[in-house]
Amino acid sequence: MKNNTSNFNNIPFQTLYSNEMITARVRELGLQIASDYIEKNPIFICVLRGGVYFFSDLTKAVPIPIELDFIQAKSYVGTESSGNVELIKDLDADISGRDVLIVEDIVDTGRTLKFLISHILSKKPKSLEIASLLFKEGGEAVGYPIKYVGWNIGKEFVIGYGLDYDGKFRNLPGVFLYSEE
Ligand code: 5GP
User: For this UniProt entry, which residues form the secretion signal (predicted)?
Assistant: First the structure.
């Protein structure tokens, strides 16, 4: 029996993480990140567009001074990885010598993140860490430690809380398992 999002257009997807669960986990991660970055004036980078809600909630849950910037890469079409990663929007800030945290929605094959990590490292930050709301089985191929993870998940395709299916469903308040039925 599926839970449904009856308060959200009766969309019958199975809930993986409700908005309440996400809020609680984001609060924990925020406090952990704040204690790691206190007095470092870090710069947090939102990976558009999927990271937008996680980034928005996480940055508000980090009660220390931080700066924000945005980057966008593209690597996915529908539920299939296209295999190529392309930079669509670069950072505006100069991050050389800065403590940088990339905030991602999900690491799947790790291809996008691997591309972003090498792009950002080429700008010579002082440190670089990653926060990802979700980490899919197999994401280890990224070859870089993901220091802050909301949840580890299996290979299923998920939507909501920033994650889309062909541009839709990003604004679902929780994370749901996508199914065609
Ligand atoms: P990766 O390069 O790690 O394979 O995947 C990167 C991007 O693919 C993610 O940032 C996300 O936009 C998309 N992606 C990967 N897995 C999923 C998924 O389960 N659901 C959705 N909606 N997007 C995904």
Answer: none
Q: Is the pLDDT of residue 125 over 90?
A: yes
Active site residue 108: yes
Amino acid at 103: V
Pairwise pLDDT comparison (159 vs 11), residue with the higher score: 159
pLDDT in tens, 89-119: 999 999 999 999 999 999 998 888 999 999 9
- Residue 139 gets the label, from left (phi > 0), alpha (psi -120 to 50) or beta, of alpha
Residues 4 and 125: their CA atoms lie apart, in Å, by 44
Point out the ligand 1 atom lying closest to the alpha carbon of residue 115: 2
Average pLDDT, the chain: 90
**Active-site position among 57, 99, 105, 108:** 108
The pTM (predicted TM-score) of the whole model is 0.91
* Nearest protein Cα to ligand 1, atom 5: 108
Atom of ligand 1 nearest to the CA of 114: 2
Structural domains in the chain, sorted by start = 20-156 (3.40.50.2020)
Ligand 1 center from residue 76 Cα (angstroms):
7
